Amino acid sequence: MKFDWYYEPTSVNECVEILKEYGSEAKLLAGGTDLVVRLRSRAQKVKALVSLNAMPELSRIQKTEDGLHIGAMTKLMDITKSEMFTGSWMVVKKSAGNVSSMQVRNVATIGGNTCNASPSADTVPGMIASDAIVRIAGTEGERALPLEQFFTGPGKTALKKDEMVVGFKLPDLGPGNGAAYKKYAIRGDSDIAIVGVAARLKLSQDGIIEDARVVLGAVAPTPIRVPSAEQMLIGQVLTDELAAKAAQAASDFCTPITDARATKEYRKEMVRVWTQYVLKEAHSNAQ
Ligand SMILES: Cc1cc2nc3c(=O)[nH]c(=O)nc-3n(C[C@H](O)[C@H](O)[C@H](O)COP(=O)(O)OP(=O)(O)OC[C@H]3O[C@@H](n4cnc5c(N)ncnc54)[C@H](O)[C@@H]3O)c2cc1C
């Protein structure tokens, strides 16, 4: 593992100034479960390694009137143990528990899982289904972006060279919402997802779907929403037939690749199968 300088800033302002100075030659270090592997294998070289571990304010989970705020450095294990994820936010807590093993979750952070921008990151589909907002800080100040707009390609994000993620907001979506996430991987949670599907449904008191999110992971260059499936669901009552139709739309919409873990045809079929399950689970969670 080779780098020239190691920094441990104690404030976000200090951190983004370091990023500005080094540009693409700096790399932020959170839990290191992705980055250290790449640095050790020399797949990635950096001049300045900038640790985020001396900013405890980035590790908080706070509930306010407008939603739930999760600091970027919050460990996945802390999310799985938090009592603050209630209602449809439970999907984020559960999907954090789908990331690998206890050993990995003890050090890996939600900011790292997001900023690594892997299409198969387990926490991301549930966060997008929850309409998560990502909070970004840079030398010019802070900005916010819907999480679904954050990913620009595999390993690529909308972050500028002097920017970092400071946290996420899960808006309070009100009553009647239920969400679910299901990961399919050969060796269960200890393995990277072949397919990940999240859904959120908002039901009226008489069971009509008022709003819907269908989000897929590992089957496109970035996590994706499926607008055709969502539109199909809105205004309807969920039946087996409707779930099957929406699932087929999701399967048709995704653009997976064939790799060592699965063929693209298998991934499409698993999207179809998993989407039906996830819609039914989200529906049951909304009641
Ligand atoms: C054995 C093993 C199994 C795994 N299994 C899974 C799995 O099942 N599911 C899954 O989703 N992932 C899995 N992963 C991947 C990994 O654990 C996660 O992506 C993890 O959440 C990354 O978080 P981290 O804090 O370790 O990030 P790091 O490795 O520290 O950083 C990852 C990337 O994000 C950038 N970054 C980190 N924080 C910020 C920030 N606040 N702002 C801007 N950029 C930032 C870093 O510069 C780096 O490029 C696995 C990894 C290992 C080693």
Report on this model:
- This protein is of the alpha+beta class and 287 residues long.
- The chain has 3 domains: 47 residues, Uridine Diphospho-n-acetylenolpyruvylglucosamine Reductase, domain 2 (2-Layer Sandwich); 116 residues, Uridine Diphospho-n-acetylenolpyruvylglucosamine Reductase, domain 3 (2-Layer Sandwich), CATH 3.30.465.10; 110 residues, CO dehydrogenase flavoprotein, C-terminal domain (Enolase-like, domain 1), CATH 3.30.390.
- 32% of the residues lie in helices and 25% in strands.
- It has 10 helices and 14 strands.
- The strands form 4 sheets. The protein has a 5-stranded antiparallel beta sheet with strand order 4-5-10-6-7. Strands 11-12-13-14 form a 4-stranded antiparallel beta sheet, with helices on both faces.
- Helix 8 packs antiparallel against helix 9.
- It is globular and about 60 Å long.
- The mean pLDDT is 96.
- Flavin-adenine dinucleotide binds next to strand 2, helix 2, helix 6 and strand 10.
By DSSP, the count of extended strands is 14
Q: If classified by CATH, what would the architecture of the largest domain be?
A: 2-Layer Sandwich
Average pLDDT metric: 96
Shape: globular
What is the tally of helical segments?
Answer: 10
